Each structure stands twice: as structure tokens, then as C-alpha cells.
Amino acid sequence: MLNIDGSQGEGGGQVLRSALSLSMVTGQGFRIARIRAGRKKPGLMRQHLTAVGAATALCGATVSGDAIGSTELTFSPGKVEAGEHTFSVGTAGSTTLVLQTVLPALLTAGAPSRLTLEGGTHNPFAPPFDFLAKTFLPLVNRMGPRVEATLERAGFYPAGGGRFTVEVTPAAQLSGIELLERGEIMRRSVRGIVSNLPRGIAERELKAVRKKLSWPDECFEVVELRDGHGPGNVVMIEIESEQVCEVFTGFGEVNRPAEAVANHATQQAQRYLRCGAPVGEYLADQLLLPLALAGAGAFETVRLSRHTRTHIDLIGRFCDVSIQTDDHGRDGATVRLG
Amino acid sequence: MNNNVVVGLLGPTLDRGDEADRWNFWRPTVSICQHEQMLVDRFDLLYEKKFRKLAQTVTEDIRSVSPETQVCHHEINFRDAWDFDDVYSGLYDFAAEYTFDTDHEDYLIHITTGTHVAQICLFLLTESRHLPGRLLQTSPPRRKSHGPVGEYRIIDLDLSRYDKIHQRFTLEQRESQDFLKSGIATRNEAFNQMIEQIEHVAIHSHDPILLTGPTGAGKSQLARRIYDLKKIRRQVGGSFVEVNCGTLRGDTAMSTLFGHKRGAFTGAMADRKGLLAEADQGLLFLDEVGELGLDEQTMLLRAVEEKAFLPVGADREVHSDFQLICGTNRNLSADVATGRFREDLLARINLWSFDLPGLSKRREDIEPNVAYELDQLAGRIGKRVRFNKEAAERFIKFATAPDAAWSANFRDLNAAISRMATMSPAGRITVEVVDQEITRLQRAWAPRLSSDDRRLNALLQPQQIDELDLFDRVQLVQVLAICRRCKSMSEAGRQLFAASRKLRKSTNDADRLRKYLARFKLSWSDIER
Asked: Cβ contact (<8 Å) for A118 and B23?
């Protein structure tokens, strides 16, 4: 049983989720102690329990310490059960994070799976559904398996009520990929989405983005959703290049001007465009795990965050794979596995 | 870990909203299920029929933000949600019908929603443990930008769980105990423990208390202290009424206790209220309760149980609600066995029974009590009297020695201090004064003079008696008693040595008796006289 220090890294939850994924794939149990030590309210929170619960349901694990406020958890995985699974997630524990936790184990499972996830799909504390569908899953598909996500209904924080399905056709073995060049930019788009909110909010956001990016008119689109549970607003900038499609997001919040929301997304996009590396900061973090399972691969990223470094350490504990990083400072970093 | 169960009323105002923008507002019931640090396994939602639609919306919203939470609906109808009687009864019935499983579930009673009357009722039901849980209070976010979830607090009404409150209670408790001990820093552990219990009972109970123990052990003083403590805590409003039942004899006993109507009997010139009626809302101390006649016992039992009794000659009952404390130095259980005391009355009055030890069983408390008596005396005579150092040491040494009987307990100590003070006009108690007092006390504690002792006094010189060991004296008294009953020394000898007579050949009993008496310089003729 591996011993993991739960106080490392920034998220706390990320270390736990990653450990759950790695544990299910490798069959290696773990004990994580000092969970969120030093925080105002240490120990597990609901969103962490949601991830633990989903992992447990998927592989029939033996778990102890899975309670709110618990600072120590042990997880001994069982056999991963591919097939139909539904995960209902409260708004705080985003559905996309739950999917990222359970997906690695299904990529090489013996049978296809169909997952239904209910809850928040667009949550400021997690990657939005669009990042999954457009950025992450296409790359996973290039590694062998076939994963398709379909959004039925968006669910914004705090109301939630969203729903999407994921079809997974596993591969016998993941193959590594290389993402060293961004290549030509093929498509650019900016979408301002409002759910049960005035259209004007999205229009102001798009105006603010256009001021900075000066892209042609056809790149900008307002999307009005009426079927959603509660109010919600997000502005998403997509940059699709030969190798990868990156998504940058700004979430609308009560008392936060539309322009500020737009600027948050714009700045990320500008930074990405300036650097030239194909893989954004968040995607880098997400790519590590499938590449490690493939045992090979390389990518060029905008920046090595503390998150990513923590993640690399954790992967090294579970997998026999060497991960080399070459930090170029402001020009990004190269990560090579194998 | 136990499941979290929230019991709460739907808030028709705070929880309202059916448009999508409701999510921008703080809705207490939904917000409870949105906290990252609290998982609600079940929500028992109480609502009035007219708010059924809102209950449905709130339930769906809870499912959305917290699929882990099972929401159970309980329809509860108030005629008037601001009527205390109505709301309390409704919530009481809910609590009575609800099956609480406190071994597996932790209950949180949400008091932020509902009318103020409902909040008060929920508080009362939680405090009285009809709702066996902790209170849950929710509050809106401090700033709008913090999102709609807001904050929550769990309030445990078990006040001992709060350090600061607990410290205050401990202090108050210690003060009350000091008060019961008249501020005397007693050292006897058993006694101090008993005072702790009495303090607790006095504060938390209105039931009768029985104080047992030898005369002078301080029963009456303690009863008054309990009354004073209850008075300070505003638990009694009436007066302290005290009577020694040993002084109640015959016809007057009834009317003294229960009162009489004018003309009830010869000499009943006017209405008399009676002690029980006087003690209404106060405290009645019946000392020597074992001396009460059987008729009075019957009346008293009814008065204690029904808080009502019939005065002599009256045709209407009088009501009086008083705290009863009884004192006795008799063994009431034995009196029950011999039919002297009613068993049912004893059962009623000794619900709380405390045995006050005599002073000789609390030797370590004598010194602080001496100081207390000197203080009291100073207050009474307006003059401070002190011991010389040596005198104090000698008195305490004597007072705490194992053979100091203190047979009248605190009465002895009080009298001793008074006497020594009187003998010390200059305000200093000297060794000589102490020595005189020691002699006085020893004489008082000497075994009581029986008729036999008096006979001994008649036959022997005082100095002779003083030189006798108790061992010899006891024997001699018995021997002399037998001699008095016999016509001759031979007859007395036969009786006194009857057992050894059977075994021994020698039968000269008279001679043995003569030799025995001679040891005390007595002859048969002395006894005959």
C-alpha cells in the first residue's frame, strides 16, 4: 500500500483524484494522510467524497476514512467493472472531475462502457464540459480508445442539473503521442453563453473579447440556453490548431462585470498564443496520466505549474515510467515520458 | 459515522422562488445542502399544505445540488403559524410520532426558517430533548460576491461542551457549594462530595429531601442554606418555615401544621393558617419528622402528593406548593417496620436522602469550623476573640483526637467556643481557658450516669472512680447490680460464678467475690447499706 502525503500540491483534491485513477488502473492500493493539512477546514470535503464514491462504485474498492473532515483515507481497489454507470454529482463536485477520475480505468478495460453524469457541467472550479469534449477526449482518442461525450443539458453552478453521457470503447493498450508543435491555427471561435440570463451579458462579453483579439465577426457567437435549471454565464475562447484544440474560459458571477469575465478568458488565450506551445497549462496536467499509462509520449507546454510537478511525482509512485521535464522559463517547458 | 438528518420547516418567505433567478438568492433550506463541509443524508422537510408547490421546488433543487440527500416531506398544518399553542402542539405531535434513531443518526434542527413562534417552539422542543438533536442556524452570505450559499452554525444546547460557559458554571457551582457550607472551607472529602450532590439536587429538583444524621450535625442549618440558595436562584419565592415535629403534640399538632377554621374546636377563636400554608411557594423544613403522629403523617403525604390538604374543621381544601425538607436522627426504616412511620410517606420524602456525618467523623473540618464559630461570635458580640497560638494548638489537638466524642456535634463546638470566649474578657483565649474547657467537655462526654453509675458514686470516692479503667468500671457496675439483688454474699457468688462452678471442684464463690470487692476497698456490708 502506497503512502501519500495529502498536504502536497495546491488543490488537495487533485492529488486524491489522481491517486484514485492510478490506483484503479494499476491495482495498487494507497493510504493518503494529512489530507488538506494546514487548511482552515482540513480533511475531506464533499467533492472529494464524490470522487471516492464514484471510484468505489466503479471497482468495488474497500475504503476506510471516507467521511467529511477525515484527514486519512485508505483505498484498496477491486476489479474495474466496465459497463453502464450513472454518477449523480452535487454542484460542488463537478461532473467533469468525476469523469476524469474514472475514465483512465475504463480506457483499457475489457469491455465498453456507457457513463451518465448528472450535476454541474460548467463550474468555475473545474474544467467545463467543452474542454473535455473538444480538447482532452480527441487527444485520448488519438491514443487508441474511442471516447465520445454528448452534452444533453448544461448545468451551471450553483443550480447544477446538467447531464452528459460518455461512450467508451477501450483499447487493448494506449499508445503514446507527441505534441511538440502547435502547427497552423485552423479555427478560432468565441462563444458567450447565457442560461436564463439576459442576452446583453453575453454581447458585452464578446465585445470586450473582440477589443483585445480583433478576430473577424464570424468567430463570435452568442448562445442562449433556456432549458437549464438555473442562471449561468460563461465565455469560451477556442483555438483549434493542427495538433490540438485549446479552450479558455471565463465564468460569470454575481456582482462581476461582464468585461472582467471576458478579460479573464482573453488573457489566457493571449498568453497561449504568445508562447507558441501547443499544450496549455491545464491540459498539460491532464495529459500526464494517459501518457504515463501509455508509457511513452512528449509534449510542449506553456508553463510547468506546481500542480503539474506534484502530479508528476505522484505518477512516479504508481507507474514505472520516467518523466523528464525541461523548463524553458517564459518560453514554456518540454515534458517527455518513456 | 452517523448519518446527518436535518429537520426543518419550509420557509415560505426565505425559501421562495420558482424562476431561474431564485438561484441568485440565499434560500436557507436549499443552502444547507450546498455546503462542502456538511453532507445531509436526509432532510425532513415540514411544510403547510398551502406551500406544497414550493416544497416541491425546494425538493427538486436540493436533489440537483445534493443528490446524496433524501428529502422526506411532512405536511403539518397550523391554523395560525403565529399562535404559540397551535404551533407548539403541531411540532410536539410531529416529534412524538417521529422515530428517532439516535444511535445511527445525528439530528440537526433548523431554526432559521418559519415564524419566530415556530423558531421558539423548535428551540423549546430541542432543549427539552423532545427533538433529540442540535440546533442548526443558517445565515446569508456576508457579501453577495460570496455566492448564494451563506454560512451555517451548529449549536449544541449541552452547555458543558462550551469551555467559556462551562467555566462560568463551574465557578457558579463552586460558589453555591461554598454557600451551602456557609463559606467554611471544609476538608472532609465525603462531606464535600455530599455537598456537591446536595447543590446539584437543590438547583435541579423540587422534590423532597431527607437529611439524616445525629443531633447537632447541622441539618437545620443546611436546610436553611438550601432555602437561601434557592431564593438567590429565584427558585422559591415564599418563606422558610421550620418546625421541630418533636414539639408538636396532641390536638395542636394538626392545627399547627395544617391550620384550622374558627370554631373548629374549643379554643379555636380565629382561623389559623398553619405552617404548610405559610410555606406556600417556599420551603418547609420538618425537623425530627419521625416524631410526627400517624394522622399527621397521612395528611402530610397527601399534602406532598396533591399539594392540597384540608385544615381542621374546614370543608374546602387549601392549596400549598412548597419544597419539603425533612430531618431526622431516627432510623425511619426501622420505624416503618414497627408501624411507627408510614412506608408510603417515607418513600415519598426520601427520594433524595443525605446522611450528615457527626463532627467526630469530620475531624479535619473542626479547625475551619472553629474559625467559623469565632467569626460568627465576633458578629454576635461585636468583639473579636482570638486564641493564643499555644492555646489554639492545644484545643485543636484535643478536638481532633480520636477520643473526642463531640456527642452533640456542632452544638458542642459552638458552646465550647462561646464559653471560652466568655472566659476570656481580654479577647485572648489562653491555655488555661482551653484546659478548663477540655475538662468540661470530657465530663459532658463521659458515659451518661445510669442508676448503676450513681450507685458507684455512692460507694466509691470520686478519685477512686477516676482511677478506674473503663474495663473495670463496667464489670464492677454489673457485679454491684447483682449483689444488690441478692440476699447474701453466697447467693451473689453463686450467680456470678455459675459457669465455673459447674467445672470446678472448689465452690467457694463467696470468697472469690469478697476478694474481688476488696480490690476496690469494698465489703459486703458497704453494699448492703
From this structure: no
